[in-house]
């Protein structure tokens, strides 16, 4: 018995020491339940706390790469890069803020767009990176978004947008305001063409982004507890001079007030979005739940009935028609 | 201080007061003051000219919110005939911060929609200081769709600090109301001409401002956020608003340079409120010209042109 203990204790101590020497970056405290979470595991769980399911923010690229089928994606409109047309300067130069944000995130601007597959269904997906100047929308975000819409329109494939943004980018002044009109106009073309657009609202979405592309989904879907609104809570409090109601502007509040269609957990996002999009696109339901795509994932699918007013079946892939 | 004058106009106010005094004196006595009066009037004019020839962005921003500045209903009075106001969004209520209805412009039927601020305290509150709630934007869209059905061009007048940041507005979908207008206006099958007549405050302005022709009055402003708002976020102090106003380039001149605004209508010396009648005549002429310009286009051409304009915003060489 003592023998066994002797053996075990030093190894425990050793592992304690090891843990102490682990770089701090490997652990993260959940801001909600304060559980200390092991980062690789947290990342595997899409930044959703493994203890309390609190949804933490997710970087744009990580979002898209985990949402789309492994290896199925290519980036769109990466060549569009920011230009400081106004030579804007506050306490810092806009140019310097851009450079700093680019360094910190590895992104050129706050929106990443990709063409890829969702359970083998071709889609276009875009995501905002909140770390990049608060996910603010300037000319690059607007242009990348429109180019993503254009791919959807041309290939008749659904568009999914994950928004996370403080609003329009002040440093681009009226140019950024006009991106609201620009992106909304592009989405109106989607609506006219009958191609589904799903807007996923993730914490937080405010201002010019919420008052344009983020609220124009055929489906507006929020992640649990996401804060979504037009004006920020502080501005509202200062204006109305009363205390804001409990849970104000949370996803659940929006659902109650009829502003979003549903709340979907990030862990179910792939399954549920596929399920709904497959109905809009008249594809067969996928028989199994969210398994990792297998080799012949590309050949699931498609004896879809033509939708009214459409010239061709929209997404017949090469070598498809497997289950006819 | 004379409240009808902004702080940078106070020297003018003092001179004007002196002139007024002299006039009163002149009425009472036999002394001939005509020469003196003419001299002072000339001085006042050149003083106004010199102050107004070199206004900062912040001063223009104050002018755009001048309490005496003409509002949408004033322009309706001065420029249009047979105006019939149409109320309500048919769902929730009538938002008095946006007014609209059918009217005639030089005989031609049009749909007019604009933000409306109030003049006296009670009226200001009723108009919610020109800050619309979702039902205001929904009313505006209802009128635009009506205009589309009856082939009436839409003329919008923009003058708002922004969409109302209130609890009720959020509950009823402020964001959605604005977004939906942006989308629908982009494909509205009738010409849309927007004029910024005062404050063009962000999304709350744009929600009735997607158009084929964007005009600004000389001392109006158009921006993504108010100078105070921008300053308190980026400079951490609302007192830096003059810096923010300059940095954002919110004036008609700067925005015209940037190609974001098509036309600038000059204002009378001292601003629109010094001579609303004269300004209204100039604006009316400009609007009729703009309409004639758009009349030659078929609906398809019009929509195509509008879409291309929207897509060109922010394009840069790669």
TrEMBL record, chain A:
Residues 26-295 form the CoA carboxyltransferase N-terminal domain. One of its GO terms (molecular function) is carboxyl- or carbamoyltransferase activity. Zn(2+) binds at residues 30, 33, 49, 52. A zinc finger (C4-type) spans 30-52. Pathway: Lipid metabolism; malonyl-CoA biosynthesis; malonyl-CoA from acetyl-CoA: step 1/1. Its EC number is 2.1.3.15. GO terms for biological process: fatty acid biosynthetic process; malonyl-CoA biosynthetic process. Pfam families: Carboxyl_trans (PF01039), Zn_ribbon_ACC (PF17848). One of its GO terms (cellular component) is acetate CoA-transferase complex. Transmembrane segments: none annotated. Binds 1 zinc ion per subunit. Keywords: ATP-binding, Cytoplasm, Fatty acid biosynthesis, Fatty acid metabolism, Lipid biosynthesis, Lipid metabolism, Metal-binding, Nucleotide-binding, Transferase, Zinc, Zinc-finger. InterPro entries: AcCoA_carboxyl_beta (IPR034733), Acetyl_CoA_COase_Trfase_b_su (IPR000438), ClpP/crotonase-like_dom_sf (IPR029045), COA_CT_N (IPR011762), Znf-ACC (IPR041010). It is found in: Cytoplasm. It comes from the Bacteria. Its cofactor is Zn(2+). Gene3D superfamilies: 2-enoyl-CoA Hydratase, Chain A, domain 1 (3.90.226.10). Component of the acetyl coenzyme A carboxylase (ACC) complex. Biotin carboxylase (BC) catalyzes the carboxylation of biotin on its carrier protein (BCCP) and then the CO(2) group is transferred by the transcarboxylase to acetyl-CoA to form malonyl-CoA. Belongs to the AccD/PCCB family. NCBIfam families: accD. Acetyl-CoA carboxylase is a heterohexamer composed of biotin carboxyl carrier protein (AccB), biotin carboxylase (AccC) and two subunits each of ACCase subunit alpha (AccA) and ACCase subunit beta (AccD). This is Acetyl-coenzyme A carboxylase carboxyl transferase subunit beta. It comes from Neptunomonas antarctica.
From TrEMBL, chain B:
It comes from the Bacteria. GO terms for biological process: fatty acid biosynthetic process; malonyl-CoA biosynthetic process. GO terms for molecular function: acetyl-CoA carboxylase activity; ATP binding; carboxyl- or carbamoyltransferase activity. Residues 32-293 form the CoA carboxyltransferase C-terminal domain. Pathway: Lipid metabolism; malonyl-CoA biosynthesis; malonyl-CoA from acetyl-CoA: step 1/1. It catalyses: N(6)-carboxybiotinyl-L-lysyl-[protein] + acetyl-CoA = N(6)-biotinyl-L-lysyl-[protein] + malonyl-CoA. Its EC number is 2.1.3.15. It holds the Pfam family ACCA. Keywords: ATP-binding, Cytoplasm, Fatty acid biosynthesis, Fatty acid metabolism, Lipid biosynthesis, Lipid metabolism, Nucleotide-binding, Transferase. Its main location: cytoplasm. The keyword Nucleotide-binding applies. It is found in: Cytoplasm. The keyword Cytoplasm applies. It is an enzyme of class 2 (transferase). PROSITE patterns: COA_CT_CTER. One of its GO terms (cellular component) is acetyl-CoA carboxylase complex. Acetyl-CoA carboxylase is a heterohexamer composed of biotin carboxyl carrier protein (AccB), biotin carboxylase (AccC) and two subunits each of ACCase subunit alpha (AccA) and ACCase subunit beta (AccD). Component of the acetyl coenzyme A carboxylase (ACC) complex. First, biotin carboxylase catalyzes the carboxylation of biotin on its carrier protein (BCCP) and then the CO(2) group is transferred by the carboxyltransferase to acetyl-CoA to form malonyl-CoA. Belongs to the AccA family. This is Acetyl-coenzyme A carboxylase carboxyl transferase subunit alpha.
């Amino acid at each position: 018995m003592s023998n066994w203990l002797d053996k075990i204790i030093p190894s425990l101590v050793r592992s304690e020491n090891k843990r102490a020497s682990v770089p701090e970056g490997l652990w993260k405290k959940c801001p909600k339940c304060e559980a200390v979470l092991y980062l690789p595991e947290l990342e595997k769980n899409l930044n959703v706390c493994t203890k309390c399911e609190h949804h933490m923010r997710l970087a744009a690229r990580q979002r898209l790469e985990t949402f789309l089928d492994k290896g199925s994606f290519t980036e769109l409109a990466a060549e569009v890069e920011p230009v400081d047309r106004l030579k804007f300067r506050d306490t810092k130069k806009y140019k310097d803020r851009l450079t700093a944000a680019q360094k910190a995130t590895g992104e050129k601007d706050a929106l990443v767009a990709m063409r890829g597959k969702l359970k083998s269904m071709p889609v276009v997906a875009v995501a905002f990176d909140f770390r990049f100047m608060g996910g603010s929308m300037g000319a690059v975000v607007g242009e990348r978004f429109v180019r993503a819409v254009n791919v959807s329109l041309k290939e008749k494939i659904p568009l999914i947008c994950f928004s996370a943004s403080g609003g329009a980018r002040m440093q681009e002044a009226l140019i950024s305001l006009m991106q609201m009109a620009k992106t909304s106009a592009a989405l109106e073309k989607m609506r006219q063409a009958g191609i589904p657009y799903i807007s996923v609202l993730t914490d937080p979405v405010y201002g010019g982004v919420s008052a344009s592309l983020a609220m124009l989904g055929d489906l507006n879907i929020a992640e649990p507890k996401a804060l979504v609104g037009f004006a920020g809570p502080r501005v509202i409090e200062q204006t109305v001079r009363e205390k804001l109601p409990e849970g104000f502007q949370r996803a659940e509040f929006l659902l109650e007030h009829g502003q979003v269609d549903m709340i979907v957990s990030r862990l179910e996002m792939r399954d549920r979005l596929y399920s709904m999009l497959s109905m809009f696109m008249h594809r067969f339901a996928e028989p199994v739940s969210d398994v990792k795509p297998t080799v012949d994932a590309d050949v699931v699918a498609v004896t879809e009935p033509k939708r009214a007013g459409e010239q061709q079946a929209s997404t017949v892939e090469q070598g498809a028609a497997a289950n006819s | 201080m004379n409240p009808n004058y902004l702080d940078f106009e106070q020297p003018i106010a003092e001179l004007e007061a002196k002139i007024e005094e002299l006039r009163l004196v002149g009425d009472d006595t036999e002394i001939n003051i005509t020469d003196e009066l003419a001299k002072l009037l000339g001085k006042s004019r050149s003083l106004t000219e010199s102050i107004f020839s070199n206004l900062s962005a912040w001063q223009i921003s104050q002018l755009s919110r001048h309490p005496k500045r003409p509002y949408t209903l004033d322009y309706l009075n001065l420029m249009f005939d047979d105006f019939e106001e149409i109320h309500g969004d048919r769902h929730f209520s009538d938002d008095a911060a946006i007014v609209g209805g059918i009217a005639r412009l030089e005989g031609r039927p049009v749909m007019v929609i604009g933000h409306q601020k109030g003049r006296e305290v009670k009226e200001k509150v009723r108009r919610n200081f020109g800050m619309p709630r979702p039902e205001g934007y929904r009313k505006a869209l209802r009128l635009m769709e009506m205009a589309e059905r009856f082939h009436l061009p839409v003329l919008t007048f923009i003058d708002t600090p922004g969409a109302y940041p209130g609890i009720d507005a959020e509950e009823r979908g402020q964001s959605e109301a604005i977004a939906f207008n942006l989308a629908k206006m982009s494909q509205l099958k009738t010409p849309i001409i927007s004029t910024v007549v005062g404050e063009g405050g962000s999304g709350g302005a744009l929600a009735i401002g997607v158009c084929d022709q964007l005009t600004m009055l000389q001392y109006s402003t158009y921006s993504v956020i108010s100078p105070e708002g921008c300053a308190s976020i980026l400079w951490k102090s609302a007192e830096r608003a003059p810096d923010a106003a300059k940095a954002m380039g919110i004036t008609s001149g700067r925005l015209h340079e940037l190609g974001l605004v098509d036309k600038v209508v000059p204002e009378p010396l001292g601003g629109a409120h010094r001579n609303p009648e004269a300004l209204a005549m100039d604006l009316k002429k400009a609007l009729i010209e703009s309409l004639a310009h758009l009349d030659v286009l078929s609906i398809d051409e019009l929509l195509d042109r509008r879409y291309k304009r929207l897509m060109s915003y922010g394009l840069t060489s790669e």
